[in-house]
Amino acid sequence: MKQPEHTPEHQASPRQNGRESRYLTTSIPYVNAAPHVGFALEMIQADCLARLYRLQGYEVRFQAGSDENSLKNVQAAEAACVPVETLVRGNAERFYALKDALDLSFDDFIRTSLDRRHRTGVERLWAACAAKGDIYKRAYAGLYCTGCEQFYKPAELTNGCCPEHGSAPERISEENYFFRLSRYEEALRRAIVSGDMEICPGSRRNEVLAWIDGGLEDFSISRSAVRARGWGIPVPGDADQVIYVWFDALGNYLAALDYGTNGDKLYRFWHDAAAREHVIGKGITRFHAVYWPAMLLSAGLPLPTRILVHGYVTVEGRKIGKSAGNAIDPVPLAQALGADALRYYLLRHFRSTEDGDFSRDRYLQAHNAELAGQLGNLVHRTLSMIERYSDGLVPVAAANRERRPDILRAAGALPATVDTHLESFAFHDALAAIWSFIAAANKYVADTRPWSLAGLAASDDDPKASAAARIELRNCLADLARALVVIGQCLAPLLPSTSGKLLRQLGIDRVWLGLGTELDVSGNRVSAGAILFPRP
Ligand SMILES: [Zn+2]
Predict the structure, then answer these.
(1) In the chain, which stretches have pLDDT less than 50?
(2) pTM passes above 0.90
(3) How many beta carbons lie within 10 A of that of residue 163, not counting itself?
(4) Strands across the sheet with 219-220, in order?
């Protein structure tokens, strides 16, 4: 198990219960529409990391929320002829509902338009940057995409249109507050190059470095209150302006830890944590890897230690969009085959840092062939054989075996492999390693033929051969039980419900830490019970 190094700085910081802590967030989505499967991917990826860190023994704070102070929400509410509060409440509730539907373990969900912590936190962050001399007011004219809530330079547009939305930006001129981003070019470059702030994958890191090398311009951090229809957090001391939604939204990561209310209980998850990590989509890299760390540097606060950037999900080959009408709801997908089936499909069949395509056919196929066919089958046949040939008790393998079978060696190596892949944000590789182990275990059953051994063991023809078969059968069943334990442990962060069920079927009902912890099940009573992945 990899433990963080205890630098003097860490030793000096107060730690709860003597344990190192980690802070992990998802991005907070706009709630101008219901959640779609692309956001489910981000939630599931972050959840998997949170569960891994808890298993590693860290004290984890896993934060989610909704970004509500956006002009987009005002426009969506106007289009739907409902008050903006009603629109954001309805959609925020649907985002929160992903918690149960996808078996997510976030500790907290902050709503930026409603939560008092948020407003005070953002105001404090503003004040800290202002005190540093990094906020000033000037007239500004530019091309603004409301979809992105961002100004574009003409050179950044595609045929005069927003590269994200394909729509023509509005020309806007008004007096705004600006943040002195230009002051932080060097400090940002240093943080990235030194690895103090990691950006994963490397291609995104290079992209961010190229932006910095191209020169960073101060950016506007307020909007006229009139244009924002009065929706948003007023600029402290200037009620004619509201705080730019990105300055506001990024502040949630601190506000949710009581930054604005000076509580130490949670704020230590930012200040004293061994890691501060954000899982985000590739479209908002600039905000998280340039603007946000510059704001933190200005406020004199620690930077994120790692920014993990995932790709986009297309659906049946097409980009998800309102106009395409293909934004599929992840909840019915999870209800149809189980939260773990959706988690599996999104973690295994999408390379986490690249774009991937969602297909209902491939989802069903992954469930039937890989979950039911390979994992479900291995579990069911193994437990059934232990019930049938060993009175339902996991046998003890003989101590004096001539040769340890390969399957035990593979079982010993698997947890560290999975741990390493997960830590490096490569869920697909972790699951591929687990599934190749499952394939090896299924092959071990086919090669060893326990049913033939059982027949031979019960036969009176050759007492010596029967005795040998009994020993071999016992060893084989013990090996397979050991394989299932390791699979159950390795699946814990990825498919938590399946892992829990499998380990309970093996008679394990206790808390354990570390994917590689040896859990001895010999002598345990098993139950084959219901099959894990019934085919629909
Ligand atoms: Zn746009």
Answers:
(1) 1-15
(2) yes
(3) 13
(4) 150-152, 135-145, 170-179, 219-220
